[in-house]
């Protein structure tokens, strides 16, 4: 009986290890996919599709124009990034045999939280900076502050995005590393204040500009998409509940694992692949062209709103994977398993 018990425990541990590797590898592959998307469409790297076509792998037809040696090398490097990510996860998991499903679930939740925090600071800083520039531009005061040449440059979406927005994105990532507050409550308050100042300016001072409404839409879209992963962690999403509430804890866990694996994770991949497979797709096209609104004096942030979909997909994918591990911990009866929506002890 003792040997049977030990064998069952060993098999259960092996299954948990494989599940941890699968979840962490999926998250890392998603990050590498995003990095490769940047390398392909912003830096001119060939990508795996062109590499496979050039080599004739998997029945792919050769390209009309063959890749040169350096391009082939870059393509193999992009392929190696996926392998390195998976191998790194395997080594990371194997060298932590005592780590539990809940620990890795918290790790994935931390990744999603960091991305959401960085995105929050990005929309805050970029929104405020772009609003000031647009206000000065529409009032004809931009030249007196920055000079004629810089005023002309700031009127170009590519220049403003490259030299104003992107540096603020880097600053946001640094702030998010040190600041652990998600800030969604503050973002909601800022949306209310931005809408209030529109009403105040319109009905009291008879003043309204396009950038004012753009700022509200920019922040509201961010709140709606960035807070989704955090809401999932807190069990705050509205659940169409017919049977779930009356289920036992283990049945709830099975429902969450199966639902996340079959519906949640594939949905996030569909968003990323369909939005980033080609330069004309929904996410890539606005980002590559620095797309702006039709109103010439509005905010120059419409292209970033397309990027919100990528942030949404990455954070939700990472959170769904953590959700799977957290519920699997309940099924595995881990000592540190806690109800979904519970928090790690600070």
Descriptive overview:
The protein folds into two domains: 1-99, no CATH class; 103-346, no CATH class. 31% of the residues are buried. 74% of the residues lie in helices and 0% in strands. The radius of gyration is 24 Å and the shape is globular. The protein has 346 residues and is mainly alpha-helical.
Structural class: mainly alpha
How many strands, which pairing sense, and closed or not: the largest β-sheet? Answer: none
Overall number of domains: 2
Q: Could you tell me the radius of gyration in angstroms?
A: 24 Å
List low-confidence stretches. Answer: 1-11, 341-346
In brief:
The protein is mostly helical and 346 residues long. The chain has helices at 2-41, 47-55, 69-94, 101-138, 142-146, 148-154, 157-178, 184-204, 210-233, 249-276, 284-289, 302-331.
Name the descriptors.
12 helices, mainly alpha, 346 residues, 2 domains, disordered N terminus
Give the helix/strand layout:
Elements: H1 2-41, H2 47-55, H3 69-94, H4 101-138, H5 142-146, H6 148-154, H7 157-178, H8 184-204, H9 210-233, H10 249-276, H11 284-289, H12 302-331
Helix pairs in contact: 1-3, 1-12, 2-3, 4-7, 4-9, 4-12, 8-9, 9-12, 10-12
């Amino acid at each position: 009986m003792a040997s049977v018990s030990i064998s069952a425990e060993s098999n259960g541990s092996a299954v948990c290890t494989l599940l941890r590797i699968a979840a962490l590898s999926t998250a890392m592959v998603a990050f590498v996919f995003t990095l490769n998307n940047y390398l392909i469409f912003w830096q001119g790297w060939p990508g795996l599709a062109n590499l496979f076509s050039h080599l004739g792998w998997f029945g792919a037809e050769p390209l009309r124009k063959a890749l040169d040696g350096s391009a082939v090398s870059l393509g193999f490097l992009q392929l190696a990034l996926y392998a390195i990510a998976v191998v790194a996860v395997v080594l990371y998991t194997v060298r932590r045999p005592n780590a539990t499903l809940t620990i890795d679930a918290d790790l994935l939740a931390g990744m999603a939280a960091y991305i959401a925090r960085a995105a929050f600071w990005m929309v805050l800083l970029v929104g405020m900076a772009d609003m000031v520039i647009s206000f000065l531009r529409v009032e004809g005061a931009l030249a007196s502050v920055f000079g004629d040449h810089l005023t002309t440059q700031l009127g170009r979406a590519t220049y403003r995005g490259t030299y104003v927005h992107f540096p603020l994105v880097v600053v946001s990532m640094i702030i998010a590393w040190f600041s652990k507050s998600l800030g969604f409550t503050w973002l909601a308050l800022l949306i209310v204040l931005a809408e209030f100042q529109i009403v105040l300016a319109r009905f009291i001072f008879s003043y309204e500009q396009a950038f004012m409404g753009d700022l509200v839409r920019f922040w509201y879209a961010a709140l709606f998409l960035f807070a989704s992963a955090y809401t999932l962690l807190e069990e705050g999403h509205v659940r169409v509940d017919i049977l779930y509430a009356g289920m036992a804890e283990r049945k709830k866990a099975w429902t969450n694992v199966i639902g996340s694996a079959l519906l949640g994770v594939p949905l996030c991949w569909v968003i990323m692949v369909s939005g980033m497979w080609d330069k004309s797709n929904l996410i890539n096209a606005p980002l590559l062209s620095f797309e702006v609104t039709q109103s010439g004096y509005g905010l120059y942030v419409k292209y970033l709103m397309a990027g919100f979909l990528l942030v949404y997909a990455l954070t939700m994918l990472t959170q769904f994977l953590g959700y799977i591990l957290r519920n699997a911990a309940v099924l595995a009866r881990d000592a540190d398993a806690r109800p979904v929506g519970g928090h790690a002890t600070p």
